[in-house]
Each structure stands twice: as C-alpha cells, then as structure tokens.
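Lab notebook, bench 4. The sequencing result for the construct came back, and we need a structural model before the next group meeting so we can plan mutations. Quick request posted to the team channel:

Model the 3D structure of this chain.
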Amino acid sequence: MTWHVEAEDLRAYAQGELAAPMLWSADTHLVACAECRGALASVSDPVSLDAGWERLDAELDAPRPGLFERALVRVGVADHVARLLAATPVLRRSWLGSVVAVLAMSVAAAHSARNSASPTLFLALAPLLPLAGVALSYGPALDPTYEMAVVAPVHGFRLLMIRTVAVLAAVLGLSGLATLALPGYGLGALAWLLPALALTSTGLALSARLGPVLAPSLVGGVWVAVLLAAKAADAGPGSTLAPFTAAGQGVAAAVAVLAGGLLFLVRDRFDRFRGSAAA
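Done. Here's the predicted structure in token form:
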C-alpha cells in the first residue's frame, strides 16, 4: 500500500475523536493494513481498550428482552419491573396452558350437568387458580428466578404485589372468559370471584408468618373442607352450595377485606424471605 493513516489520525481514532469522512477511510484501511493496526495498538490506551472490550462483552452477554417485556416497557413500566414481571414463572405458557385446561374441563363438566342449579366444579376450582398462581410466583422454594428478585431494587412487599397483580390479571381474565361460556347460569356463574379474592388475600396475609408454601396450601385445604361440609349439608338436587349463596358471598367479601387489612399491617415481614435467601 502507498497510503497509510497518519499517526495523529491514529491517535484521534484510538480516542474516538476522528471525524468523518476520515473516520470511514481509516476504518476501511485498518481492515486490510496490518502495519497500521500495529501502529494503532502502540498509540492506544490499554486501560481504555480493556474497558471497551468489557463493555462489548457485557452488551453481547446481556439477555435480550422478550416480546412481553418490551411491551411492558413501551407502555411505561420501569425496566427492572418489566424484567421481574417477565420472569414470573406462572406467566409462562406452560402454567397458563394448565389454567386454560382446568377451566375448559370445569366448563365442560358444567354443561354436562344441566340439571344442576350452579356449575359447582367450575365455582370450586376457579378460586384455587389465583391462589396457586400467587403461591408459585414468590418465594425461594418455588420461584426459579428468586435470586434475581432478591437483588432487585424493590421492597419485598412491592415485589409481591407486582407479581400478585400480574397473576390475578392473567388468571382472573381467563376465568372471566370461561364464565362467558356459561351463559345459562346468569350472574350465578360469577360466584367464584369473591371466594377467589378472599382465598388469595388470606393466603398472602398468612404467608408473612407461615411462608409462601404452607400458607396457600393451608388456605386451599380449608376451602376444600368448606366445600365438602357444604356438600354434606346440601338440601338436595338443584340447590346451591352455601359458599355461592348471597350469605356465602357476603362472608367471602368480609374475609377478603379483613385479609387485605392484615396483609397491609404485616407488609414489612416479607423482606425476611429476601434476607433468608441472601444468607
């Protein structure tokens, strides 16, 4: 080659100060000229060069946000909150597919029992789905992304609420769509909603003391026991189980309100899960 990059231009190139069009010429020339590349190495700051390589490695190794995460950021959700929501295990397709399968099965069972006054199986299972979803979305025992959540700049209670709202939005939305497949039961098909809120809020409130696994399991067991007791006291074919009557709905609403108040009072205790995991 009869032309090489001047030493002054090489220094400016190494410092990122070389302007176009000389920058373009230097880029093209350095690809083919070993002599100029050697000269560039001699005038480059090794500390700045190493820092540049580290930034490049970090950029290449950084996880690429998925469609759901990008959509959350686009609507104004903070980056770290969007990452925590996208990493929520129960928002993955496998869990949501299981929820759809359970709801479809219970809707099919309701249609096959047309002589019943209410879709009992659907009303029994629908409140358990958000309870299970919230239980699986938080805590060191069940959340595979818990270590990332521990170091996130988010209070433990806020993280719990962020994921709870996301899970409730997903599960209650799917349950609401399933309810539309039961038009013959009218408003009675919505009798699962208040029990679902009561079970979820109670499970969250008890998690502060019993942990994110035992508390939802205990609440779910109590719900099943209540249903079995109501079934044993059932007046006969065509009657509605007690939890889905007007009185039962009132009790569920009261439990949801009381549990919500208790959850607010014990909100600071959720940071102990983070501390125990970090230890």
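The first helix runs from residue 7 to 14.
Will bring this to the meeting.
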